[in-house]
């Protein structure tokens, strides 16, 4: 549509320039001038019809863009409603858990005894994979002794583990 409009404007401009050039250059060519004016009028009329058709086409496309906007807004509202429901569920859960925790903390303060630990939520997180893959640590073997078994100390001093860098 934009290229059609540009072509029409260029065509109108060139025709108008020809007509104006003929009218200003020589007054004896009235017949040619009348023909140029007629051509220019016809060009204006054609341009008017084509602009109307372009505007009608753009008006007909606006409901599509409005429909697309409405669909996007409805989708956005649905996502926000789901998020609100999710957080309302979490709030309800904590509203049931917090009074029990408050009761247990008051009991501890009053009796100085530890209550049984609260039951975890329905889904408990799995232990980290890195911690599960580590071998059990032997408390009799210090960390420094096991860390240098197969490694050479690459610093020059033998008595200091870490160098002071300033």
TrEMBL record:
**Which UniProt keywords are given for this protein, alphabetically ordered?**
Coiled coil, Nucleus, Transcription, Transcription regulation
Pfam families associated with the record = Med28
* Keyword Nucleus carried by entry: yes
UniProt feature, compositional bias: Pro residues: 114-128
Write out the ranges of the annotated region (Disordered).
106-166
Compositional bias (Acidic residues) at which positions?
152-166
Among InterPro entries, the record links this protein to: Mediator_Med28 (IPR021640)
User: What subcellular locations does the record give?
Assistant: Nucleus
Q: Name one GO cellular component term.
A: nucleus
Specify the domain of life of the species encoding this protein.
Eukaryota
Coiled-coil residues: none
* Chief place of localization: nucleus
Q: What family is it from?
A: Belongs to the Mediator complex subunit 28 family.
Q: What is this protein called?
A: Uncharacterized protein
């Amino acid at each position: 549509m934009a290229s059609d409009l540009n072509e029409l404007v260029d065509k109108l401009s060139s025709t108008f320039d020809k007509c104006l050039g003929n009218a200003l250059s020589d007054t004896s060519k009235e017949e040619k001038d009348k023909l140029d004016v007629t051509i220019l009028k016809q060009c204006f009329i054609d341009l008017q019809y084509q602009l109307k058709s372009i505007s009608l086409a753009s008006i007909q496309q606006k409901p599509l863009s409005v429909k697309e906007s409405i669909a996007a807004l409805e989708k956005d509202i649905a996502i926000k409603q789901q998020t609100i429901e999710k957080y309302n569920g979490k709030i309800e859960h904590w509203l049931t858990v917090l009074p029990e925790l408050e009761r247990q903390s008051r009991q501890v303060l009053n009796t100085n005894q530890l209550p049984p630990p609260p039951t975890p939520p329905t889904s408990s997180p799995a232990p980290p994979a890195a911690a599960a893959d580590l071998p059990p640590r032997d408390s009799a073997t210090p960390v420094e002794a096991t860390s240098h078994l197969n490694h050479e100390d690459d610093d020059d001093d033998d008595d200091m583990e870490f160098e002071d860098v300033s």
